Amino acid sequence: MKKSILLLIAAALFISAAGFGQSSSKLISTKTQIKFFSTTPAEDIEAHNTASVSAIDKSSGEVVFSVPMQGFEFEKSLMQKHFNSDKFLDTKAFPDAKLKAKITNLESIDFGTDGSYPATVKGELTIKEKTNSISESGTVTVKGNTVKVGSKFDVTLADYGILFKKGKPASNIAKTVEVTVQAEYQ
Amino acid sequence: MKRKKVLRIIAILGVAGLLIGGGIGIYMFNMPQRDVQSTKTDYSFSSSQLVKEYLNDKDAADQKYLASDGDSKILEVTGVVNKITEDFNGQKVVFLKDKQDLAGVSASFTSETESTLQGITVGEPVTIKGVIRSGAAYDEDLGFYLNVVLEKSAVI
């Protein structure tokens, strides 16, 4: 009887230790920047978002970004209103975008040694509740206790149901925009 | 003679219309961003109240606080300063959170409002005015709670 209780305690300790182990392998970032850049003969449009939150699991290679869409700041007020409106990103109905991916070359990244490591990720990007698979490359930089991640990739707006019918925004926004992501994890 | 006069009036009206229309167009195109700090506050509460409202029903809270054109509600939030950090643009970010709460309020300042942070210390209560960008929620993929985000904030 006593033995089984001891075993139970041992098992409980083991499980909680495993749980702790898991959480300590997770890096969290609230210091992020997502930039998008669109260029057409009519004009260049750029927007910045510093409100995203991200996590990387060092042991599984899982990468997640949660992006509050109303956090994109434009130089011009009208651009920001167009971006948020129900004709485009409809940020009131779809307040968040999400990137869920996995580092596919985890074995070549040493989170314990300072250095810059090329990384490839595969996963899904969800904008306006439309999900597409993505496969991108980026860099993981380790320096002391901080890990930085950077990547640049293209997003085709039509893939996410962002369609321009007519009017000014249709001629002034590129069909494919360049997205630059950087994040600093602790 | 009379016809000429009418034509002239039409031409003047046309040009005036074009000028006014064009002027409005240029103004709309270059319209500056809303000045959050000089705009009237829509709601005032504690960081705990706001976080609880979001965790209770995020969709309802989004409906209440987010505007479809992005000019969302302007809030005054009172809470205890948990930490002060800096974002990639070098802007200060103040995180308000009460110990017993599952999430807090993250408020980013601008170069114009940074001076209002003078004398603010971690552990002290403070009231911050800013525009809401997103609400608090548990994120299953991240495995933790997301905070309410305020931007263009200032201590008042």
Can you give a write-up of this model?
The complex is a heterodimer of chains A (186) and B (156). By secondary structure, chain A is an alpha+beta fold. Chain A has a single domain, classed as Beta Barrel (Lipocalin), CATH 2.40.128.110. Chain A contains three helices and eleven strands, in the order αββββββαββββαβ. In chain A, strands 1-4-5-7-8-9-10-11-2-3-6 form an eleven-stranded antiparallel beta sheet. Mean pLDDT of chain A is 87; it is low at 15-22. Chain B has two domains: 1-31; 36-155, OB fold (Dihydrolipoamide Acetyltransferase, E2P) (Beta Barrel), CATH 2.40.50. Chain B has three helices and eight strands, in the order H-E-H-H-E-E-E-E-E-E-E. Chain B has helices at residues 2-30, 47-56, 58-65, and strands spanning 43-46, 74-86, 92-96, 105-109, 125-134, 137-139, 144-146, 148-155. In chain B, strands 2-3-4-8-5 form a five-stranded mixed beta barrel. In chain B, helix 2 (47-56) packs across helix 3 (58-65). The longest helix of chain B has 29 residues, at 2-30. The A-B interface holds A 26, 28, 30-33, 48, 50-51, 53-55, 64, 66, 68-71, 73, 76-78, 80-81, 83-86, 90-92, 95-96, 98, 100, 182, 184 and B 28-34, 62-63, 66-72, 85-89, 91, 93, 106, 108, 132-135, 139, 141-144, 146-147, 149, 151.
Q: What is this structure's SSE topology?
A:
The complex is a heterodimer of chains A (186) and B (156).
Chain A: H1 2-24, E1 26-29, E2 31-39, E3 44-49, E4 53-57, E5 62-68, E6 73-74, H2 77-84, E7 96-103, E8 115-127, E9 130-143, E10 146-156, H3 168-172, E11 176-185
Antiparallel strand pairs in A: 1-4, 2-3, 2-11, 3-6, 4-5, 5-7, 7-8, 8-9, 9-10, 10-11
Chain B: H1 2-30, E1 43-46, H2 47-56, H3 58-65, E2 74-86, E3 92-96, E4 105-109, E5 125-134, E6 137-139, E7 144-146, E8 148-155
Parallel strand pairs in B: 1-2, 4-8
Antiparallel strand pairs in B: 2-3, 2-5, 3-4, 5-8, 6-7
Helix pairs in contact in B: 2-3
